[in-house]
Amino acid sequence: MTPLPTFLESLHAVPDAGWSGAALSIVRAGKVRAAADYRVEREALAGQDVLYCLAGAGTVETLGRRLRVRSGQLAWIANELPHAHEADPDDPWTLLWFRLDGPDPPQLRRKIFGDRPGLIDIEDHLALEGWFNRLFRAMRGGGSGLAIRLNQLAGEFLVHADNEVRGDPADEVPPSLASAINAMRSDLAHGWTSLELSKLIGLSQSQLRRLFSQHLRTSPHQWLLRERLNRAQTLMSDSTLPLAEIAELCGFCDVYHFGREFRRSIGTPPAAWRRLELGRAR
Question: Is 6-166 a domain of CATH 3.40.50.2300?
Answer without folding.
Answer: no
